[in-house]
Amino acid sequence: MGNHIIDLQGICKSFGDTKVLKDFNLYIRENEFITLLGPSGCGKTTILRIIGGFEQPDEGRVLYRGEDIVNVPPNKRNFNTVFQKYSLFPHMNIFENVAFGLRIQKMQESEIRKKVMHALEIVNLPGFEKRYPDSLSGGQQQRIAIARAIVCEPEVLLFDEPLGALDLKLRQGMQHELKKLREELGITFIYVTHDQEEALTMSDTIVVMSNGEIQQIGNPVDIYNEPQNRFVARFIGESNIVDGIMHEDFRVRFSEHEFTCVDGGFAKEEEVDVVIRPEDIKIVSPEDGMLRGVVKNVYFKGVHYEMVVSSGNTDWLVQSTLMEEKGKTVGLSIYPNDIHIMKKCN
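RE: above sequence
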């Protein structure tokens, strides 16, 4: 990945009196798997539709390889879109569904057959060309929708929450298939979802959005481990967020205890937000803990237990493969690398 393939510059969009996008700026690189992640109504699908040409911005430019394509219609852009509802033609067999875009291009029949069969092989559905959509499972229909999108060899594939209608097991399987597919095709994927697991599993880059604005851009590890504000910390996974005071670089006080941390650059005695992931809190004996608390609730989550430990005025969410009994007094230990400090700006 290197060169920019798409640049969004100063994009603004309103529907009626509601401003959906506010001076939105983003670049997308060649061969990148980039995910627009955020809650419903944050503007992520609007951005996808603007890139695809299905919506026009009120202000701003959409550059494709340096040229503004705001006024270029969707069918003239070398992009294809995979929708959540598949949009397969029920009266056509799978071959004709996949071949639809090629026939519009008036391609030779021999070339159409070659490209369709190759696309079906890519999505692991060879031999399905004579079947009809209603005979396929949801996951298979989604693969056919992807085959139809890639058969015309676009430079960019747009995905609008394509796995939302699938059950959990199918969704997880398709996540791995999509990541593998992008690596095989070597084209740019722009993916929209509200599902944090999807974003973390598949993406090279995640763009976290809220209220029409970008909150943070980064790779999955950085987005999870180094959230830049409360919104990102709460939206990506589970977080304990408490008030703290930076006494000096690498020393923070919260929950009536002073901790060593790995963050600096704050003013002396500055009020901060302290973020600690539930899996990073270790339950130890009461006498060995930095904090002491009582197990308030215990929930079994399959691969781990989730416990709420009440310590002073704070209820700590703790995840562990070992269960502690409700009502038991325990110690909590937190290591410096597991304490993340944020400025109180959001």
